[in-house]
Specification:
InterPro entries: PhyR_sigma2, RNA_pol_sigma-70-like, RNA_pol_sigma-70_dom, RNA_pol_sigma70_r4_t2, RNA_pol_sigma_r2, RNA_pol_sigma_r3/r4-like, WH-like_DNA-bd_sf
Keywords: Sigma factor, Transcription, Transcription regulation
CATH superfamily of the largest domain: RNA polymerase sigma factor, region 2, helix turn helix motif
Number of domains: 2
CATH class of the largest domain: Mainly Alpha
Low-confidence stretches: none
Protein name: RNA polymerase sigma factor
Oligomer: single chain
GO molecular function: DNA binding; sigma factor activity
Pfam family, one: Sigma70_r4_2
Number of strands: 2
Shape: globular
CATH architecture of the largest domain: Orthogonal Bundle
């Protein structure tokens, strides 16, 4: 990872601060929960700080952060990390915090829908949503046109939301 200049870091922080309300709205729409949204924002900003060397000053930072946030959310949701027990520190004690009932239900529904997806839909979801591959990378890896990647991804996401149960 290349070294980041102090000026670039200051510019990044000054550019990110006004974006937080937009990030919060998007995070709440993804998580449907303010606490989870705040966690997602924190994870996104941490990831952005770690990948600061990839940021181009003057580029659309909101779009960059939103894509990063969406990928983090999908990765966390699809991989089942939402079902893992989190550790909450209270005055030096680490206490397990089980997932909320809503999270458990959402995860169970997702796990129930995942096997109903066709192999090609699961494959494209893993590549793009979980592993963060670009459409172009997925297209090259699967040897199909980018339009096919977009179509499969849209259909797979629709099926995972429960809007279309027969996707094969």
């Amino acid at each position: 990872m290349p070294a980041i200049s102090a000026a670039t870091e200051r510019q990044f922080l000054a550019t990110v601060a006004p974006c937080i309300p937009d990030l919060r709205r998007y995070a709440v729409s993804l998580t449907r929960n303010r606490a989870d949204a705040d966690d997602l924002i924190q994870e996104t900003l941490l990831r952005a700080a770690l990948k600061l060397h990839l940021w181009q000053p003057g580029s659309n930072i909101v779009a960059w952060l939103i894509v990063m946030m969406r990928r983090l959310h999908l990765s966390k949701f699809v991989s089942g990390k939402r079902n893992q027990t989190e550790m909450v520190s209270i005055e030096g004690w680490d206490l397990p915090s089980p997932p909320s009932q809503t999270e458990a239900i959402e995860l169970r529904e997702l796990e129930d829908r995942w096997p109903n997806l066709s192999r090609s839909h699961r494959e494209v979801l893993r590549l793009v949503a979980i592993n963060g591959a670009s459409y172009e990378e997925a297209s090259e890896r699967l040897h199909v046109p980018i339009g096919t990647i977009r179509s499969r991804l849209a259909r797979a996401r629709t099926a995972l939301r429960g809007e279309d149960r027969a996707v094969h």
